[in-house]
Write a structure and sequence with these properties.
The strands form two sheets. The chain has a seven-stranded parallel β-sheet with strand order 1-10-9-6-2-3-5, with helices on both faces. α1 packs across α2. It has about 240 residues and is α/β, with parallel strands linked by helices. It has a domain at about 30-130: 3-Layer(aba) Sandwich (Rossmann fold). The protein is globular. The protein has seven helices and ten strands. The longest helix has 18 residues, at about 10-25. β2 (about 30-35), α2 (about 40-50) and β3 (about 60-65) form a beta-alpha-beta unit.
Length: about 240
């Protein structure tokens, strides 16, 4: 595990964008695993800025997103498909047909999860997976459990996750209670994993996840044994680490 200590959110975002841009420059047809939420927004903004300067070409890149809310279609303003278009896809020369996100409107979980696993396998796996860190240690929507879920699956969101995501909706009752998410196996099989974490509110879970035991009760803890995992975090998020 490698830790990059950043001064603040903007510095963290730039450091993570450096890693992703290097990946794309070295391998123009890279498969990028992408995350949503507030943590990666600054990273996406930096990548857009470098694209606009002509420093990065995304035309050969393929992407797979971690997750999607069950029940929201791709045009819903709070869907992760909409999030990705608004925060990245619409601003770079990435072809939309090369992007992949679970379908929130497929009612049959077995059908959708099997389809998404075939998509990941068909791409040859993930070259670089970007992650955030949930307040309870979840990655993607892999919530605390008594085992590590392997492949794409439907998950019931915990109360903590629902509460954390309420800020994106008008009220808590609007937050979907289920999501489709890549499994831990999908994430761990990525050639490289980069996680961005910011703020004092994440300091405790950073300590537990990366300086405590590996346990499915803290899903992110399994990244301790990934062959190429980089944690990019700001001073506040690392404040409980010696």
């Amino acid at each position: 595990m490698k830790i990059i200590r950043a001064r603040d959110y903007d510095h963290m975002s730039r450091q993570a964008a450096n890693i992703i841009s290097a990946q794309v420059i070295i391998k123009p047809d890279s498969v990028l695993g992408l995350a949503t939420g507030s943590s990666p927004i600054g990273t996406y903004k930096q990548l857009i800025a470098w694209y606009e300067k002509g420093d990065i070409d995304f035309s050969g890149v393929r992407t797979v997103n971690l997750d999607e809310y069950v029940g929201l279609d791709a045009n819903h303003v709070q869907s992760y498909a909409h999030f990705m278009r608004s925060n990245l896809f619409d601003h770079i020369n990435l072809r939309l047909e090369n992007t992949n996100i679970p379908s929130g409107v497929e009612p049959d979980a077995e059908t959708e999860c099997a389809r998404y696993d075939r998509v990941i396998r068909g791409l040859g796996g993930i070259d670089l997976q970007l992650l955030g860190l949930g307040p309870n240690g979840h990655i993607g929507f892999n919530e605390p459990d008594d085992h590590f879920s392997k492949t794409t699956h439907k998950v019931a969101l915990t109360d903590a996750t629902v509460k954390a995501n309420t800020r994106f909706f008008d009220r808590e009752s609007d937050v979907p209670r289920y999501a489709y998410t890549m499994g831990i196996q999908d994430i761990m099989q990525a050639e490289r994993v980069v996680m961005v974490v910011s703020g004092a509110g994440k300091a405790g879970i950073v300590r537990e996840a990366f300086f405590g035991p590996v346990t499915p009760r803290i899903p992110a803890s399994i990244l301790q044994i990934h062959k190429d995992f980089t944690l990019v975090a700001d001073e506040e998020a690392l404040s409980q680490i010696d």
